[in-house]
Amino acid sequence: FLTDMPNVVYVKNYTPPKINVKEVLRYAGVKGEIPEISAIVDECVKELEGKLNYKVCYSEYPVKITGNEIDLSFALVNSKNLAKNLKNCKTYILFCATVGIAMDRLIAKYSVLSPTKALIFQALGAERIESLCNLFNKEIQGKYKHTRPRFSPGYGDLKVELQREIFAALNCSKNIGVTLNESLLMSPSKSVTAIIGVCDENTCEKNEREEKRGCFNCEKINCAFRK
Predict the structure, then answer these.
(1) DSSP state letter for 184
(2) SS3 call for 105
(3) 151-184 burial, b for 16+ CB within 10 Å, e for fewer?
(4) Which terminus of the chain is more exposed, N or C, with fewer CB under 10 A?
């Protein structure tokens, strides 16, 4: 089942999704309404206008699961959590998304000039890339009707080393300008790779009933962003 045959990789550009200020504040660790912080958020949002590039590259692959061993077509992995996520799926969407390098430059700039603004830009970056992923997820769900929650390297027991194979499969550097360094960190930093399982109506509905929370795939129960 494992193959070295290249898949067709598609590239899409998106218009900026609407900014969710509540999510920005959540990522910044701000609870409740604080006028001074809200004013800084407004300033950062204004400075950000027109600077980001919302891009996604993706491909569809067959998948075969035997116990906790998963044949992703371009790589073999062993992950109990991913096997659970992809249970009964025959295919999946592999994607990489980014909002571009401008956010990194703003974070670096304000790390020197204003730590508070640097924090807000970090939070904005997290909100922006998540919003892009959600937008892409919604499009995929609209096309395939029944999909699984997206799952990224580093979630649960899925090793982050899978990033190397993902970047090779999608040719992320050429297609959307995202690179991976020796420490497995992505540049631009506000980038995400993930897997979206595709399944039929009956099996997806069964899996969804088994899920109790949006963070069910991740075992990091102390995460500050856990919902």
Answers:
(1) S
(2) helix
(3) bbbbbbbbeeebbebbbebbebeebbbbebeeee
(4) C
- The CA angle 79-185-101, to the nearest 5 degrees, is 130
Q: How far is CA 126 from CA 2, 6, 85, 157, 165, in A?
A: 34, 31, 23, 22, 24
pTM of the predicted model as reported, rounded to 2 decimal places: 0.88
When the pLDDT of each residue in the chain is averaged and rounded to a whole number, the result is 89
The predicted structure's pLDDT at residue 7: 81
Alpha-carbon distance of 97 to 170, in angstroms, equals: 11
In three state form, how does the secondary structure of 14-48 look? ECCCCCCHHHHHHHCCCCCCCHHHHHHHHHHHHHH
Residue type, 29: G
Among the listed residues 60, 72, 85, the one whose alpha carbon sits nearest the alpha carbon of residue 7: 60
- pLDDT score of 145: 83
